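In line with agreed milestones, the collection of sequences with tokenised folds has grown. A representative record is reproduced below.
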Amino acid sequence: MKKFFSSLLLLFFGLLLFGTKNMSASQLQEKPTLIPHSYFEDNENYYILTPSPKKARTWSKTQGYTITNTKRTYLGRFKNGHSITIKIPLPFPGLKPIVIYKYSKSGFFKEYRQSITIRVTVKVYRKIDNRYLKTTTYTSHTSYIDKIPD
């Protein structure tokens, strides 16, 4: 009888010590999550987990802009074509889609690279009392390709 109780006691302690739930590495790395902006009874456990986003201290108003064509470069004469097709696909396999609209045009085009400068003037104000701080000018140099039918 003593052997039975001692083996039962050893089995109980063995299950208690070694029978714990296996945890994966991802579960071990997870941090306990608290509800943001939650209030607990004791003040020691009052947490705000999400930091407040940085608020802009200024606002701006566009005063004006200018677009200046600085340079136009001739790239050449090219034969180009484009087409537009609108189709309705049918849900049954083996059936061709229904064509609603089809348009195509081809021909020669002259291509130009147009370089432009965009200048925007902005007045900056303080958010607290709407006091004028400064005037800032932003400049952007960009280009696009223009195709003109021949």
In short: The chain has a mean pLDDT of 76. Residues 58-149 form one domain.
